[in-house]
Amino acid sequence: MSTIDKIARLTQQNTEFDMELRKRLNVASANSVLSDDERINDIYEYCIEDIIKKQATEFYADFPLQTIKDRLIGDYIRMESFRRKDNFEDFCLSLYQQIECMTNKLCENKDLSDITEIMWGHPAYLKIEKGKDTSIYNRGGDYTIASLLFPGNNKQSGNTNAFVKSRISLQTQYAMDKIRTIVYFLGYKAMMKSGDYDSFVEITSLLNDIYQCRNMPVISSLPFVGPSAQSIWSETNGRMERSAWSRLTVSLMRS
């Protein structure tokens, strides 16, 4: 038996000798050495993190707003990390932060702001006439864009929200008002037909559920969380490779 083999056997038989030898050689203690299972777990986690980073980068690869791209990628990575940890609250927060970041950046655009404020009072839907092509200028009905985007009444004045909010700028609107505006003017390119109403409500209801989930404790047990928000979490057995808002926004910005 070689000297090295004898020393190795002695370290296994005598704990004090093992500790003293490691101390003098400046080698980590046996307790701090990772087991094979721990090493495999660390490698697995590293691979998963790398996959998520690539997934986020690829998802936002064609996103045109370069100034917020890195932030969106970071929030996407955090969102997926929280999902893997079954952390529903922080998952929703990271998801909403992507929505918020895009919304605020888009609403800074002066052209969009000017167009929306001019069109608040115009009919919400295009006029459909047999044998004629639809046109953004050919609109009909009494139901205005403001009525669609700002439903309900103002509790203080009693006036409709459409009346009150159509008199203020896009930048000063509440978060969900901005989000509905983006969906209408960019998602539908201000060319909704009356038959699109249900899909508009479905999309904006989903986004509203996500909005309600942000920064709220024990969110999954609260009664106000709608089924659409819960469906994000459970989609394909809990795997969500693309957030609903990101998917919508990227597709519309590419077009």
Bin the helical content.
55-70%
What structural class do you assign from the helix and strand content? mainly alpha
Largest sheet: 2 strands, antiparallel
Instruction: Please report which band the strand proportion falls in: under 5%, 5-15%, 15-25%, 25-35%, 35-45% or over 45%.
Output: under 5%
Task: Write the element-wise H/E pattern from the N-terminal end onward.
Answer: HHHHHHEEHHHHHH
Summarize the structure.
This protein is mainly alpha-helical. Helix content is 61%, strand content 4%.
For the structure shown, list the relevant keywords:
12 helices, 2 strands, 61% helix
Word description of this protein:
The chain is mainly α and 255 residues long. Helix content is 61%, strand content 4%. Strands 1-2 form a two-stranded antiparallel sheet. Helix 4 (69-84) runs antiparallel to helix 5 and helix 9 (175-187) runs antiparallel to helix 10. It starts with a helix and ends with a helix. The model is unreliable at 218-230, 235-245 and 250-255 (pLDDT under 50).
Record the SSE blueprint.
Elements: H1 3-13, H2 15-25, H3 36-59, H4 69-84, H5 88-107, H6 110-119, E1 123-126, E2 139-144, H7 145-149, H8 161-165, H9 175-187, H10 197-213, H11 227-238, H12 244-254
